[in-house]
Specification:
Layout (H helix, E strand, L loop, with lengths): L2 H11 L2 H22 L4 H9 L3 H13 L3 H32 L12 H20 L11 H30 L9
């Protein structure tokens, strides 16, 4: 994306109403997902961060199936398939607002794309999960798809840690004593 396009994005998306709208959608979506997947416990995180092989995925899915939890996992996609839109929108709008307010140089505007990249990785990961769940005997869980799904998940979480940290730093920087709030 060209520099001037990112500058337009930055100027156009940092509105309070967008931050509030995406924030509400994100919080409702996140709370709903957490409530749905709660019975899966730590096995979901284990799968997202350590599910590098078809063998690992099939083992976790069989475990969930035997415990009657596979449908719980399936059902979370009714919310999770759109969830990436809400957090991408929220953090892109928030970063745009903070970049404008803090007068971050435009050469750093590429950072505004991190939430979108994270969201697209999440959507890719979900698409692979749908493939895995499309056959009752888990025959579509084949290498290297679990590796790709897990790498997408790790990259998604890494990018999220980066842009959340940047937003927190910019918010904290703004609140430092002696700083001119109008600057």
């Amino acid at each position: 994306m060209e520099t001037h396009a990112l500058a337009r994005l930055r100027a156009g998306l940092g509105h309070t109403w967008l931050i509030v709208l995406f924030g509400i959608l994100y919080l409702v979506s996140q709370a709903t997902i957490l409530a749905i997947v709660e019975p899966l416990g730590s096995s979901l995180a284990r799968l997202q961060l350590l599910g590098f092989s078809a063998e690992t995925y099939r083992a976790v899915f069989r475990e969930w199936q035997e415990a009657g939890l596979l449908d719980v996992y399936r059902s979370h996609f009714s919310v999770d398939d759109a969830h990436w839109l809400w957090y991408s929108g929220l953090f892109t709008a928030l970063l745009c607002r903070l970049f404008e307010r803090e007068r971050i140089p435009h050469r750093r505007d590429w950072i505004l794309l991190l939430p979108v990249a994270s969201g697209l990785l999440d959507a890719f990961e979900n698409r692979i999960q749908h493939i895995f769940l499309s056959a009752p005997d888990f025959s579509r869980i084949v290498d290297p798809l679990p590796l790709l799904s897990t790498l997408a998940s790790i990259a998604k979480w890494t990018l999220a840690a980066c842009y959340v940290s940047i937003a927190a730093w910019l918010l904290a920087r703004r609140r430092r004593p002696g700083r001119d709030p109008g600057a």
